[in-house]
Design brief:
Structural class: alpha/beta
Radius of gyration: 21 Å
Number of strands: 16
Mean pLDDT: 92
CATH topology of the largest domain: Rossmann fold
CATH class of the largest domain: Alpha Beta
Number of domains: 2
CATH superfamily of the largest domain: Glycogen Phosphorylase B
Number of helices: 16
Shape: globular
Largest sheet: 8 strands, mixed
Low-confidence stretches: 386-392
Strand order of the largest sheet: 3-2-1-4-5-6-7-16
C-alpha cells in the first residue's frame, strides 16, 4: 500500500517545499500539495504532484496572512473536494497547522498530523501579548499532531522544549542536499582557486533576507577593491530591504543572478565560488542563531568553504568538524583582515578539510527518503510500514 500524503504548504514558491515533496516521492509516497501562493509555484511542472491553491499571502503582512488562513479554513471543504483521502497530513509552519485539524476532519479524524517547523518566527518568541497569543495558537492547533519535524537541534533546545508547550516526539531532518540519483553528486569536489589576477568569490545563495549581511558584504567588497566578489542567487525578501535591486546594481563587486533550481543547479552555482556565506543576522540571537541553513550543506557537498559566526549553531557545527572559517566578530574590517591574508595555500588547506568530510553529512539519499516515508507510515494504524529501513535522526522532546 502506498502512503498518500496531503502536504499543506505555507508558500508554494519556496524551493524547500519542492525538495520535501521530492523527498516524499522518492520514498515511495504519493503527494498532494495544498498551499498558499506568494510567487511562482515551484511544483507547477512537477509530474505526478497535484497542487491546490489555498489563496495568496505576502511576506511580512501578518494581518493579511491571518485573514488568508481564516478564508482558507472556511473554504477547505470545497478546496479539498475530489482529492483522495490522505493517510498522513503534513502541515508546514503555523499558518497551515491551523488548517490541518479541519482538513483531517473532512476525511477521517484519525488521520495523523505532522507539524513541520524549520524556522521559529520572531512572533513566537515575543515576550508580550502577541507572543503569548501565537504560542497559545500553536499549542491549540498542535494538540492533534503526532510528530514534530524540525531541522536543527537548537530549535528543540531553545524553543520547542522550554517554550512551545508542545509535547511531541521530534524528528530531526537536517537541510541536506537531496540526491535521489547519484549522478549529480557522484564526483568529489575539486579545489578552484581563482586564476592569477582574479578575485576570490563568496556565494550567498538561497533565501536572501538579511539586510545587515547585504550591507556588510557590499562594504567589505568595496574595501577589497576588486580582490573579492560577492555572488547572490535565490529569492530576496524584498520587504526586508530598502531597495534591494538598486543597492545591488550600485555595488561594483556584487552580482545577483536570481533564482535557481535545487538540487539541479547546485553543482554549477557552488562551483562558481570558493566560499559560502553561512551567516544570518535576520533574527539575530534567535532563529538566526539556531538554524542550520541549506547553504551550509550545499556548500559542504560542493566544496565551498563556509564562513560562519561563533556562538551560533552553524558556527558550532563547523567548529566541531574543524572546517571553514568561524569568527567571533564579523564586520567589514574583520572580513578584510581575513581575506588580506588569504593565499592559495591557505585556501587549499581549508578546502581539503571540507572535502574530507563524509558525503553522508551533506546528502539525503534514497534510503533516507524511504526511511522518512516509513516513519510517517508508522503513525497510521492502517498503513503497513516497510521493514528494515535505516533510521532517520530522532530527537526526543
Amino acid at each position: 500500500m502506498t502512503l498518500n500524503v496531503l502536504y499543506l504548504a505555507h508558500d508554494m514558491a519556496d524551493a524547500a517545499i519542492r525538495r520535501r515533496v521530492l523527498t516524499l516521492k522518492a520514498g515511495g509516497a504519493t503527494v498532494t500539495v495544498a498551499g498558499f501562493e506568494r510567487g511562482s509555484n515551484v511544483l507547477a511542472d512537477e509530474p505526478d504532484v497535484t497542487t491546490i491553491s489555498l489563496g495568496k499571502t505576502a511576506d511580512g503582512r501578518f494581518a493579511q496572512r491571518i485573514g488568508a488562513v481564516v478564508a482558507a479554513r472556511t473554504a477547505l471543504k470545497r478546496t479539498l473536494s475530489g482529492i483522495a483521502p490522505p493517510d498522513v497530513i503534513i502541515a508546514r509552519n503555523l499558518e497551515t497547522l491551523a488548517l490541518a485539524g479541519r482538513a483531517a476532519s473532512l476525511f477521517d479524524s484519525r488521520i495523523p498530523i505532522v507539524y513541520e517547523c524549520l524556522d521559529i518566527h520572531r512572533l513566537l518568541l515575543d515576550a508580550g501579548m502577541k507572543g503569548r497569543a501565537m504560542r497559545a495558537a500553536q499549542r491549540a492547533f498542535g494538540r492533534r499532531a503526532s510528530l514534530l519535524i524540525t531541522s536543527s537541534p537548537a530549535f528543540v533546545d531553545n524553543f520547542f522544549r522550554p517554550l512551545s508547550g508542545l509535547d511531541l516526539p521530534v524528528l530531526l531532518l537536517e537541510n541536506k542536499v537531496l540526491a535521489i540519483a547519484p549522478e549529480p553528486v557522484s564526483e568529489p569536489p575539486v579545489p578552484r582557486p581563482p586564476e592569477p589576477g582574479r578575485p576570490w568569490r563568496i556565494g550567498w545563495f538561497g533565501a536572501i533576507r538579511c539586510r545587515k549581511s547585504l550591507d556588510m558584504l557590499i562594504d567589505f567588497s568595496n574595501c577589497m577593491d576588486g580582490k573579492v566578489e560577492i555572488v547572490l542567487r535565490g529569492r530576496p525578501a524584498y520587504g526586508e530591504f530598502d531597495d534591494f535591486d538598486a543597492k545591488v546594481a550600485a555595488a561594483p563587486h556584487v552580482e545577483f543572478h536570481g533564482a535557481y533550481r535545487n538540487p539541479e543547479d547546485l553543482a554549477a552555482i557552488y562551483g562558481d565560488v570558493q566560499f559560502t556565506w553561512a551567516i544570518d543576522f535576520f533574527e539575530e540571537g534567535l532563529n538566526s542563531s539556531w538554524l542550520l541553513p541549506n547553504r551550509l550543506y550545499e556548500g559542504g557537498l560542493y566544496g565551498a568553504v563556509p564562513i560562519a559566526l561563533a556562538g551560533t549553531e552553524t558556527g558550532r557545527f563547523i567548529g566541531k568538524r574543524g572546517i571553514g572559517l568561524v569568527r567571533n566578530q564579523v564586520t567589514p574590517q574583520t572580513l578584510q583582515a581575513l581575506f588580506d591574508e588569504m593565499t592559495e595555500a591557505r585556501y587549499a588547506e581549508l578546502f581539503s578539510r571540507l572535502a574530507a568530510v563524509e558525503r553522508s553529512q551533506w546528502v539525503t539519499g534514497p534510503a533516507e527518503c524511504r526511511a522518512l516515508v516509513s516513519r510517517l507510515a508508522a503513525l497510521h494504524p492502517n498503513v503497513p510500514s516497510p521493514a528494515d529501513l535505516p533510521a532517520v535522526s530522532t530527537v526526543r522532546s
